Amino acid sequence: MPTDYKKEWxxxxxxxxxxxxxxxxxxxxxxxxxxxxxxxxxxxxDRSNKWGQCRL
Length: 56
Description:
The protein is mainly α. The protein is built from two helices and no strands.
């Protein structure tokens, strides 16, 4: 009895883009946070200025 493996090979050849995207996103996010970490010190939600006075 001949078996057609065409459908199985096509399913196995499909590229999983989601896992590659997540790996790349995590790497880029990690690099960005380490490279620009000093910019996060002055977050807009921080209500105190450099003299410790409250900005309202």
